[in-house]
UniProtKB/TrEMBL annotation:
<keyword id="KW-0698">rRNA processing</keyword>
<keyword id="KW-0949">S-adenosyl-L-methionine</keyword>
<keyword id="KW-0131">Cell cycle</keyword>
<protein>
    <submittedName>
        <fullName>Putative S-adenosylmethionine-dependent methyltransferase involved in bacterial cell division</fullName>
    </submittedName>
</protein>
<dbReference type="GO" id="GO:0070043">
    <property type="term" value="F:rRNA (guanine-N7-)-methyltransferase activity"/>
</dbReference>
<keyword id="KW-0808">Transferase</keyword>
<dbReference type="InterPro" id="IPR003682">
    <property type="entry name" value="rRNA_ssu_MeTfrase_G"/>
</dbReference>
<dbReference type="GO" id="GO:0005829">
    <property type="term" value="C:cytosol"/>
</dbReference>
<keyword id="KW-0963">Cytoplasm</keyword>
<dbReference type="GO" id="GO:0051301">
    <property type="term" value="P:cell division"/>
</dbReference>
<keyword id="KW-0132">Cell division</keyword>
<keyword id="KW-0489">Methyltransferase</keyword>
<dbReference type="Pfam" id="PF02527">
    <property type="entry name" value="GidB"/>
</dbReference>
<dbReference type="InterPro" id="IPR029063">
    <property type="entry name" value="SAM-dependent_MTases_sf"/>
</dbReference>
C-alpha cells in the first residue's frame, strides 16, 4: 500500500480522516479483485488517481450544503471520499446512488464497519 500524503488537493487531512481514507483504500483494493470497482490499470495509483482526485471536490462544496449526492457511484468515488472528509463536520450528508447491483453490496459492506456515512 502506498504511504498517502498528509494533504489532498490542498485539503489538510486530520489523522481521523486519514484513517478513514486508508480504510477506504484497503477495502477498495480488496473488492476490486472480486468485482472490479476500479480498472486494473489504475489500481496501482488508487490513492492519487481515485482518492486524491475525489478529494479535490471537497473545497467546492458550499458551506451551507446539507446533502451531497453521488449519482452512479460505481466504486464509490467521489462519494465515499467526500463522506470521509465530511464526517465530523456536520455537513453534508452523503448519499450514493448506483444502478448496478453488483456495486451496491460492496458499498454497503464498506459503509458498515465505518459508522461515519
Amino acid at each position: 500500500m502506498n504511504a498517502p500524503p498528509r494533504a489532498l488537493a490542498g485539503v489538510a487531512v486530520p489523522p481521523a480522516v486519514l484513517a478513514r481514507l486508508e480504510t477506504l483504500e484497503a477495502l477498495v483494493r480488496k473488492w476490486t479483485v472480486r468485482i472490479n470497482l476500479v480498472a486494473p490499470s489504475t489500481a496501482a495509483e488508487l490513492w492519487t488517481r481515485h482518492i486524491a482526485d475525489s478529494a479535490q471536490l471537497w473545497p467546492l462544496a458550499p458551506p451551507e450544503a446539507r446533502t451531497w449526492v453521488d449519482l452512479g457511484s460505481g466504486g464509490g468515488f467521489p462519494g465515499l471520499v467526500i463522506a470521509a472528509l465530511a464526517a465530523g463536520t456536520g455537513r453534508p450528508a452523503v448519499t450514493l446512488i448506483e444502478s448496478d447491483g453488483r456495486n451496491v453490496p460492496s458499498c454497503a459492506r464498506r459503509r458498515a464497519p465505518w459508522g461515519w456515512m
